[in-house]
Amino acid sequence: MSVNDAYEQRKFQEIQEETWGHLAPTENQIYIGYFTYAAGCYGGCGYEITSSHFEGLDDSPWYYDAITDYINQQDIESGMIYQFTGSFCNGVFEGIITIILDTNVKKEGV
């Protein structure tokens, strides 16, 4: 990493903290809740987070990074809607993932 890259990264983190710092998750605080996401049918579309609620946790860049990192580590099948239920603490999710809907199941008469 060049000196310029390191400076830009540090400056970005400073601006992010100044702008969104009041929304950052509290260190060592355990937040209980869920989020739901749907996997698109056209591979490149990836997934969409459709809902999210963790009691006392505001949306923030840190939460967004954590949730997208977590989803990207999962095996996702297109056409599925999933729900994570559990806890979030220090950037780590612990809980279970349930399939809410499998749109790949053929319907009778279709």
Walk me through this protein's architecture:
With 110 residues, the protein is an alpha+beta fold. It has one domain (22-102). It is built from 2 helices and 4 strands; from the N terminus they run αββαββ. The chain has a 4-stranded antiparallel sheet with strand order 2-1-3-4, with helices on one face. β1 and β2 (47-54) form a beta hairpin. The longest helix is centred in the first third of the chain and has 18 residues, at 3-20.
Query: Helicity range of the residues?
Result: 25-40%
Number of strands: 4
* The number of domains: 1
Through-space gap between termini: 55 Å
Layout of helices and strands:
Blueprint (H helix, E strand, L loop, with lengths): L2 H18 L10 E9 L7 E8 L6 H12 L7 E10 L2 E11 L8
Antiparallel strand pairs: 1-2, 1-3, 3-4
Q: What is the compact description of this entry?
A:
This protein is an alpha+beta fold and 110 residues long.
Descriptors:
27% helix; flat; 35% strand; alpha+beta; 110 residues; four-stranded antiparallel β-sheet
